Amino acid sequence: MSFKEFKKHIERKAAAKGAKKPARNKYRAKKCQDDAGRTYDSQLERAVYHMYALMQKAGDVLEIQQQDSIYLTDARILYKPDFKIIPASGDPYWVEAKGVKTAVWNIKRRLWKSYGPGRLEVWEGSYTRPKLTETIIPMGDGKEKQNANRKKEETR
Fold first, then answer.
1. Which three-class secondary structure state does DSSP give residue 48?
2. H or E element in which residue 53 lies
3. What pTM value is reported for the model?
4. How far, in Å, CA of 20 to CA of 15, rounded?
5. Chain centroid offset of residue 54 CA
6. Residues 24-39: pLDDT tens digits?
7. 37-87 confidence digits (pLDDT tens)
8. What CATH number labels 30-155?
9. What are the residues whose beta carbons fall under 8 Å from the beta carbon of 5, sequence distance 6 or more?
10. Segments in 59-156 forming alpha helices (H)
């Protein structure tokens, strides 16, 4: 059997099987919904949301927003943390449920340290036992830091 014949054979076999299997998530995260119909990218994200929902019922949190868009740097690098929390104290902060740390996450984490609009809480672990592993507090306005770096370079 030649390569062309083999390729046609495989294509016919695939066409005969019909429907394709649904695509799996690269990191094996399972999309899920809660009783209210909200969709989450992972079970960990759903568990973290429910913790903050309990805090909202207790009156500690006024509002929970999903997938808030944040632009980091003047280059407008888009980052969407899982939740924006508006507590009763008034100072909003953001929450990220992290199952797998990727190279892109490491870059956005460092950018948040310099350009983030406020505190970012990072939750890890399983959905049965989420753990607050890191709280990132930005160093202030990113432009102030850039100006400070320029002044250091000018004095050298």
1. helix
2. helix 43-58
3. 0.72
4. 10
5. 21
6. 666 667 788 888 888 8
7. 888 989 999 999 999 999 999 999 999 999 999 999 888 899 999 999 999
8. 3.40.1350
9. none
10. 103-115, 142-155
